[in-house]
Design goal:
It is a single chain. The protein is of the alpha+beta class. Helices cover 29% and strands 31% of the residues. The protein has helices at 2-21, 74-77, 164-192, 206-234; strands at residues 29-37, 56-68, 83-87, 97-100, 103-106, 113-118, 130-137, 144-145, 148-149, 154-163, 246-247, 256-258, 262-269, 274-286.
């Protein structure tokens, strides 16, 4: 009886310890957001901005919180109040820095940004990506490197993301498509190999060469078809899944994986309506 009582007591103590150390879905987390300013193919920024192809990279450490922002931004709210995303410089950290021809430069960022996660159309399903949206306010004026100047205004960020469960489903969905494309590419390269490839392509026999070109055309078409399918899959499933950064993010106890193909834009009023001008890309990694 004593042994049973002791065992029950030990088990209860263990359960209490586990319950107090289990991660809260609302616990804040720290991430490094790396802003990569520069001209992108579809941007409507002025022609001279980033024309040289140069980039300005600015790492910003932030604290992701579950508390709601003090003022709602209509771009990312989607009918709900976004949660806080605060630069660590505002709570004891250093200002973000970058290097230009004049040495190290600092950039001040507003003390409160906001973030929101949106499920894919129709809700979470089959491993498809959710959308991570957030914003930060740039306060420093004239921060530049060559012909790239950081806009002194609100920067909007967007990227695909996956919670752990959807990530695992998405990974299983895209891996066969990735393998199929790689096999098609390898088959094509084998045919074109200088030493072991299709000797009919040497041109020693006209009819054989014509037939070989026909076979090659089919292989190229097959490769291109599979590449198209892969590119479409990458829009919703986690490509190169093992390389994606993963870490805690408020809202669930599952970790979050963030796509490295995030976009940044600024909001510009026009005579009729408004537009979003792309100013670069960004990546994220947990601290």
């Amino acid at each position: 009886l004593i042994i049973m009582t002791t065992s029950v007591l030990n088990f209860s103590m263990l359960a209490m310890a586990l319950s107090t150390t289990s991660p809260s879905p609302w616990a804040p987390s720290s991430w490094r957001i790396t802003l990569n300013f520069g001209r992108e193919p579809s941007t409507t920024m002025p022609k001279s901005w980033g024309e040289s192809g140069g980039r300005l990279v600015l790492p910003v450490d932030v604290l992701i919180e579950s508390d709601r922002v003090s003022k709602v931004d209509d771009v990312i709210s989607g009918g709900a109040t976004p949660s806080k995303l605060r630069p660590l410089m505002g709570i004891g950290g250093d200002c973000p820095t970058f290097i230009n021809s004049e040495g190290e430069q600092t950039v001040e960022i507003g003390e409160e940004g906001g973030w929101r996660m949106s499920l894919p159309p129709g809700g979470a399903k089959a491993g498809k990506a959710s959308s991570l949206n957030f914003y930060l306010d740039i306060l420093t004026k004239g921060a530049s490197r060559n012909d790239v100047t950081i806009p002194t205004e609100r920067i909007y960020f967007v990227a695909n993301c996956w919670r752990e469960k959807e990530f695992n489903i998405g990974r299983r969905s895209i891996e066969p498509i990735e393998r199929s494309y790689r096999r098609a590419q390898q088959k094509l390269e084998k045919k074109l190999d200088h030493d072991t490839g299709d000797r009919r392509l040497d041109g020693t026999d006209a009819l054989d060469t014509i037939a070989a070109y026909g076979d090659m055309a089919q292989l190229v078409q097959d490769r291109d078809d599979k590449l198209y399918k892969l590119k479409e899959a990458e829009k919703v499933f986690p490509a190169n899944s093992e390389e994606l950064p993963k870490g805690p993010w408020p809202g669930a106890t599952e970790w979050l994986a963030v796509s490295p193909k995030g976009g940044m834009a600024i909001r510009k009023k026009k005579m009729f309506g408004e537009e979003f001008q792309i100013v670069g890309t960004w990546t994220a990694s947990p601290l």
